[in-house]
Amino acid sequence: MAIQNVLITGATSGIGLALFEQYTNQGENVIACGRDPKKMALLQSRSFQTCLFDITEPEQVATAAQEIKALDILILNAGDCRYIDDAKHFNGELFSSIISTNLSSLGSLLQYFLPKVKKGGQVVFVSSSATILPFPRSEAYGASKAGIDYLANSLRLDLVEHDIDVTLVHPGFVSTPLTDKNTFAMPFILSSEQAASRMISGIEKRKKYLHFPKRLTLIMRLLSFLPSSLWQSFITRKVITSKGNSSNSHTREDQA
Domains, the chain, ranges and CATH? Predict the structure, then answer.
């Protein structure tokens, strides 16, 4: 099988780093992307190529894309998760920041990197199982990921004529520096390595939709069919505790 050129945004931590490790071990040409110079330096010797840029800065994205010739797989993974702790006093600045990082940034990423994807290639969007059901405090994060879902599913239709497949990924809870800050229960949590392995397997099979762990995602889908009063009671009782202990600092982990 021919060696593939795989570009990964948010390759310096979490799922992105695990994807980098596993694709590199498979012998693929991995193009690692991130915004932290120190972390990128650690990957540089092992990468086929590296691109240092902030996904929220279109000019940086455009400059980085000039260095890329052709891609087989484009994995749009970088993102952020912060919560709205007081809905009555809605944090519009935080909301805008999350939408910008997780959703709006995809506009420039697609503008400059999608033309590099070869015929027969793939674009992979890392969304979240949080779009299956609404969660408390997730107004910003959930809205951004729901937007990714629609974007991926719509783009898939328009890329058929170009013979480019689109894979939408709905991970459940994955152990990363971001989720380490969570103060609520995270059932069936996976390691970043487990999540990356499942993603790579699904990407190889060119699946349109990946969701894992199925023990969690199928339960969530079943709950979504219940009367809203029942699943709302379940979610608010089981998922959210210790409201005041979440972190809404402006540090961003480069994964979704």
Answer: 5-245 (3.40.50.720)
